[in-house]
Design brief:
The protein has 344 residues and is of the alpha/beta class. The protein contains 7 helices and 17 strands.
Length: 344
């Protein structure tokens, strides 16, 4: 265990984590970041968060021609390091992120567990090394739940027309005036499908049952939309296409028969899982596993001195810009809390 006590440790490296690092670093808090390590599919947990699966980001302010998700996260990271952010890596060195041959994500470390029972807080890395911190910002995000098909994952990574966020990607030219598919039957799936009707020629809602799980008002909204077509009692068993999706293979849950549905895009809307399991119940969570905010206008949690930012506390918006905004709030809250406790 290191005897040094960090002013702030940030867990997570998406828009929330890097924004918190930028603000904390500029406030001379010399933050230490656990950026995470890639996890295998189907969860697709990557350092940099869900944007690492987004080929084109067109709705983040400041990039009139858009920017790729990985490039945007690289810019965030470089900005944070420029102001003195340190990153926990295998060799113990903050990588030179301006060098494309350095700083590969496999070098970054995960957090195995935490101890928030008393201060200074303990952060246990995956190598069992213990790090001490006066304050902590949790910004671990939430991962989209994928079907888990090999070609689904490949096309999601390469921008081949598979996505888990209609608001993020639906307006892109590759999806306009095409027949699209949405997998899911809850409120989120209806919201995704309804949003996509602004751009698509037709939207197929694929659901494994014969009626939606969505609330009555949301279900009625879907039924009333002339652009939405229902594929009842169907599951997606394969995604077809090489460079881009061409169809989805469906299996009837009643008869077992398979059929191919030609589509130009697939949106998976079967929920998200917040990355909060490592907390082991030490922060208060809601029923879905998202971290509860002690004050809805702040970033405070159930433990004094532990703050939260981004999608691990946001089950509603899940956008890069809202996560970044929460990262800003968390860093400012942490800075003020440290000052109030005599840590400068």
């Amino acid at each position: 265990m290191s005897d040094a006590v960090e002013k702030v440790i940030i867990i997570g490296s998406g828009p929330a984590g890097w924004t918190a690092a930028i603000y904390a670093a500029r406030a001379n808090l010399t933050p230490l970041v656990f950026a995470g390590r890639p996890k295998s599919q189907p969860s697709l947990v990557l350092p940099g968060g869900q944007l690492m699966l987004t080929t084109e980001v067109e709705n983040y302010p400041g990039f009139k021609h858009g920017i790729t998700g990985p490039k945007l996260m690289s810019e965030f990271e470089q900005q944070a390091v420029r102001f003195g952010t340190r990153i926990v890596t295998d060799d113990g060195m903050t990588p030179d992120v301006s060098n494309p041959d350095d700083g590969h994500s496999y070098k970054y470390h995960d957090v195995k567990s935490v101890d928030f029972s008393k201060r200074p807080f303990k952060i246990i890395g995956e190598d069992d090394k213990v790090y001490l911190a006066h304050s902590v910002i949790v910004a671990t995000g939430a991962t989209a739940n994928w079907i888990g098909l090999e070609n689904e994952m490949r096309l999601a990574r390469t921008g081949g027309g598979v996505s888990a966020c209609a608001v993020c990607d639906g307006a892109m030219p590759i999806f306009r005036n095409k027949e699209l598919a949405v997998v899911g039957g809850g409120d989120s799936a209806v919201e995704e499908a309804t949003y996509l009707t602004k751009f698509a020629s037709k939207v197929h809602m694929i659901h494994r049952r014969d009626q939606l799980r969505a609330s009555k008002i949301m279900a009625q909204r879907a039924h009333d939309n002339p652009k939405i077509n229902f594929q009842w009692n169907k599951t997606v068993v394969d995604v077809l296409g090489d460079q881009a999706i061409t169809a989805v293979r469906l299996k009837d849950t009643v008869t077992g028969a398979t059929s191919d549905l030609p589509v130009g895009g697939l949106f998976v809307a079967i929920g998200h899982t917040p990355a909060t399991k490592f907390l082991n119940g030490q922060l208060e969570l809601d029923a879905k596993g998202y971290i509860k905010l002690k004050d809805p206008y702040r970033s405070t949690t159930s433990v004094d001195g532990v703050f939260v930012a981004g999608d691990c506390a946001d089950s509603v918006y899940r956008q890069a810009i809202t996560a970044a905004g929460m990262g800003c709030k968390a860093a400012i809250d942490a800075e003020r809390w440290l000052a109030d406790h005599g840590v400068h």
